[in-house]
């Protein structure tokens, strides 16, 4: 099961890194709905923040009896990191490399730990397995959106 989850993430990264690389710098910084929306740079930055937060969740849930941790203020994180001012290529490479790193960690999670309960913020507990699958679905949703695809993968938790 952990191998399957790792493969899901690896396939996402391999499939999308070429498409992300094609997005020009001039487009990556445009906020499609003005100041009230994220640019592709900021949206990919949000996925970097998601990787950071989920890395800690995955790791702790894989070595502790349960995981208890906060949600995060995603708009504040995006603003504080200044993704809008960064180069698109730098953000894209960092997202790819961080997720490749995560695939190795996920692959090494013991099977029995995939059922570890994870309490994120005030939400209902979910199994680590669900958290990992949700992470991949969340990333695909945002990548579809930031690349302007006609069909954006549904993400029910938004």
- How many domains? The number is 1
CATH class: Mainly Alpha
Low-confidence segments, ≥5 residues, pLDDT <50? Answer: none
Mean pLDDT: 95
Largest beta sheet, briefly?
3 strands, mixed
> If classified by CATH, what would the architecture be?
Up-down Bundle
Order of helices and strands: HHHEHHEEH
Radius of gyration: 16 Å
The count of β-strands is: 3
Major β-sheet strand ordering: 1-2-3
Number of helices: 6
Name the quaternary structure.
single chain
Overall 3D form: globular
CATH fourth-tier homologous superfamily: dinb family like domain
Distance between the termini: 26 Å
Question: Roughly what percent helix?
Answer: 55-70%
State the CATH topology.
Four Helix Bundle (Hemerythrin (Met), subunit A)
**How large is the share of residues in beta strands?**
5-15%
Structural notes for this entry:
This protein is mainly alpha-helical. It has one domain: Four Helix Bundle (Hemerythrin (Met), subunit A), CATH 1.20.120. The chain is 61% helix and 6% strand. The chain is built from six helices and three strands, in the order H-H-H-E-H-H-E-E-H. It has a three-stranded mixed β-sheet. Strand 2 and strand 3 form a beta hairpin. It is globular.
Core attributes:
6% strand; Four Helix Bundle (Hemerythrin (Met), subunit A); 3-stranded mixed β-sheet; 158 residues; mainly alpha; single chain
């Amino acid at each position: 099961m952990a191998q399957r989850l790792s493969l899901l993430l690896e396939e996402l990264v391999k499939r999308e890194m070429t498409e992300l690389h094609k997005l020009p710098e001039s487009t990556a910084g445009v906020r499609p709905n003005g100041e009230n929306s994220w640019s592709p740079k900021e949206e990919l930055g949000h996925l970097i923040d998601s990787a950071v937060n989920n890395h800690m969740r995955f790791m702790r849930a894989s070595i502790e009896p349960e995981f208890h941790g906060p949600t995060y203020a995603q708009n504040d994180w995006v603003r504080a990191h200044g993704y809008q001012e960064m180069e698109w290529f730098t953000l894209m490479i960092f997202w790819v490399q961080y997720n490749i790193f995560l695939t190795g960690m996920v692959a090494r999670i013991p099977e029995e730990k995939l059922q570890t309960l994870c309490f994120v913020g005030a939400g209902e507990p979910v199994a680590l397995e669900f958290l990992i699958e949700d992470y991949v679905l969340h990333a695909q949703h945002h990548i579809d959106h930031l690349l302007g695809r006609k069909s954006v993968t549904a993400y029910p938790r938004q």
